[in-house]
Amino acid sequence: MSQWPVRLILLAATTGILLPYCFPRYDLGLLAWVALIPLHIALDGLSRRRQAFWLGWLAGIICSTGIMSWVVTAMNTYGKVPLVFSYGIMLLLTAYLGLYVGIYSAGVVWFRMLMPRYGLFAAPCLWVTLELLRTYVLSGLPWSLLGYSQYRQLDVIQIADHLGVYGVSFLIVLSNVALAELYLWLMPLFRGFRPARLPWELVTTAAMLVSLSWAYSTSLIASETMEHTKATLQVGVVQPNIDQAVKWDQAFREETLRRYDRLTESFGYGVDLVVWPEAATPFIYEREPVYQLQLVAMANRASAPLLFGSPAVRFDQERKPFLLNSAYLLSPDGELLGRYDKQHLVPFGEYIPLKSSLLFFLEKMVEGIGDFQAGPGPTILSFQLKESDGAAPARRVKFGVVICYEVIFPDLVRRIAGSGAEFLVTITNDAWFGDSSAPAQHFSMVVFRSVENHLAFARAANTGISGFIDPFGRIIVASPTFTQTALQAEIPVRQTKTFYSRHGDVFAYGCMLISLLFCLYGIFGTKGAEPDAVAATPV
């Protein structure tokens, strides 16, 4: 530590402090375009990757703590973990997430040493590579990736229909790197020194790509506005605001159903589909024939199919029971039209990793019946639209469902969209987030799933945020948290496949390949050369 000037530590910490303000609740998305500059200034001139790693890790820990502080509420209030252990678990999580920023910082210094003039062009590729790894390593936690900070900047993020959220992260990092290099070039000029060579290639590339992104996004939105969508449907989402503490209390069961009934009845006959949240029924639907009839009656009074969440019990080959987190589609006449079983479960929410050995003392954050198992894969549900007087015969509409945590995984959602969905639905129970920034962070990520696949999203959340998002990321309506409400909106129904929904994360894997090539060059291409000679080699 004695080798580190306080200035470098403060610069790295400044980036860590700024980044959480780019995300909900603060929503200062434009800040993301400059938030990494202090860290890059701190990395300038460093020749030791280890020192760069520690600075980056510091920035990453501070940033992740600011974004993920809601973990303490979830663990302590709903997981019954003592407060001191809850903070410890959060710090372990944020230390893990901070590693990615540390690796990025070490990579930036290494790439600059390998190619002093052009090495920084690979910095955004390395950042995207690390975000892609975050999506899959240790079951994946791609929560609040850098690109999500721009969920309100519709005139920039439409490139996600080709590049995914990773493409927006790439643009942000490239802009930060270019601005940091421009600042470092200008500083000697202001002080009367002879400045180094202007990094015009980096600045020009960043300006050109941001301009192209803006031009593509604005032209796409403008062309969509001029075209009138032929097919639409009315969807109603119910937000019952059931307290997590009583959600599975049998004494509160009747009140829960009355609340759903009252909110559903408020739609009248004006909707084509009613959506309830994840685990809406405080019982196992398939095992409760009396309550089944109540749900059929509610769907019948709404004259619309009812999509709702409920646990399902199945048996393995040895006749041992296991649970699925499922979404059921029920017709107004009581026919079960289909069921989707959640594929990607929440660690510590729906199951405890290593519970039989290492983590035997933990309870789940989400109170329920027991541990869940993953479903088989993408499922498309469908229902018949209501017939209109004098109109053509009603057609079947196909849609996909993702449950809670699944919506933060771009590839999972795009596989469902690519299976023929004409719109998408996500149901969730965010009650265990408490009064934190997490519900707004969770909602912001749905915007990108709409843009990536150009499909509308309907979202029903127990305590909020519920709402609707159009195929280009515009938030049609969104509810406040912790309120009882029933929202209704008209959303477009369309059969479309974007480049992203067809091909997935081609861009992100391309960035990974470029990063790998730089690493291989650093390991083998400079083998035998003196470090100082490598750093000084003109490119």
Walk me through what this model shows.
It is a single chain. This protein folds into 2 domains: 253 residues, no CATH class; 230 residues, Nitrilase/N-carbamoyl-D-aminoacid amidohydrolase. The C terminus is likely disordered. The protein is built from 17 helices and 12 strands. The longest helix has 32 residues. α11 runs parallel beside α12. The chain has 539 residues and is of the alpha/beta class. The chain is globular, with a radius of gyration of 25 Å. A 6-stranded mixed β-sheet has the order 5-4-3-2-1-12.
Layout: helices, strands, pairs:
Layout: H1 6-18, H2 32-35, H3 37-43, H4 49-68, H5 70-78, H6 83-114, H7 123-136, H8 154-157, H9 160-190, H10 200-226, E1 232-239, H11 253-265, E2 273-275, H12 289-302, E3 306-315, E4 321-330, E5 336-341, E6 380-384, E7 396-403, H13 410-417, E8 423-428, H14 438-453, E9 457-461, E10 467-469, E11 475-478, E12 485-492, H15 499-503, H16 506-525, H17 531-536
Parallel strand pairs: 1-2, 2-3, 7-8, 8-9
Antiparallel strand pairs: 1-12, 3-4, 4-5, 6-7, 9-10, 10-11
Helix pairs in contact: 1-3, 1-4, 3-9, 4-6, 5-6, 6-7, 7-9, 7-16, 9-10, 9-14, 11-12, 13-14
